[in-house]
Write a structure and sequence with these properties.
2 domains, Tetracycline Repressor, domain 2
């Protein structure tokens, strides 16, 4: 459980703690992380930590939520002005890869959540998928996307982005263990190959017709 700051200074302090926790969890892992390490990284006193968080689990869950909010915001902003669903896919994936290149902790912390906080892990993925489903349903209404189960398609598309990003953003060129620091973006030829695959998967069939609003796909 965490507490909301009551002042601007408190908001800044809590943000520093979240940033520090993100760095510590990413570098040493949840089990080796400690509240002392987090407060030292943030440059605040140990007692200050407990003004905002009950303990290590609470700040870990909020780090996951914060990363989720930021990556969804980046993807949504990038796709906002897209004219078609495929353009939105391109913009959204580029934003996702750019974010993960700048914040490789996203992968490391989310994978820890599988064992540390399964509820936070599930919430992370379902929040992303819910927005994806809405976008695919809207595209089906206009006939831009073929008739398919949007829930299955959303999970499949998210899986594509997750694994392409892990291989070409998080890992090094040999595909070995992740290294610290910001990572390169996905190579352009890899991105284009991925998008061709996605375009073929979503493309309407010759006999496709726009779905009526309110009709289940």
């Amino acid at each position: 459980m965490s507490a909301q700051p009551r002042t601007a200074r408190g908001t800044r302090t809590k943000a520093k703690l979240l940033e520090a926790a993100e760095a510590v969890f990413a570098s040493v892992g949840y089990h080796e992380a400690s509240i002392v390490k987090i407060t030292e990284e943030a440059g605040v006193g140990l007692g200050t930590f407990y003004l905002y968080f009950d303990g290590k689990q609470a700040i870990f869950d909020e780090v996951v939520e914060d990363l989720n909010r930021r990556v969804r915001h980046a993807m949504t902003d990038a796709a906002r002005n897209a004219g078609t669903r495929i353009e939105a896919e391109r913009a959204g994936f580029r934003a996702f890869f750019r974010f993960t290149a700048q914040h490789p902790a996203l992968y490391r912390i989310i994978r820890q959540a599988e064992f540390v906080s399964p509820g936070a892990l599930r919430l992370h993925y379902t929040r992303i998928v819910d927005g994806y489903i809405a976008g695919l349903k809207a595209a089906q209404l206009t006939g831009e996307v073929r008739d398919m189960d949007p829930t299955v398609a959303a999970w499949a598309l998210m899986g594509i982005g997750e694994l392409i990003g892990m291989r070409w953003v998080l890992w090094d060129e040999e595909g070995t263990d992740p290294v610290p620091g910001a990572r390169p973006d996905v190579p352009e030829d890899v991105f284009e190959e991925m998008m061709q695959f996605i375009e073929r998967a979503l493309a309407p069939t010759p006999d496709s017709t726009p779905l009526q609003e309110g009709k289940a796909p």
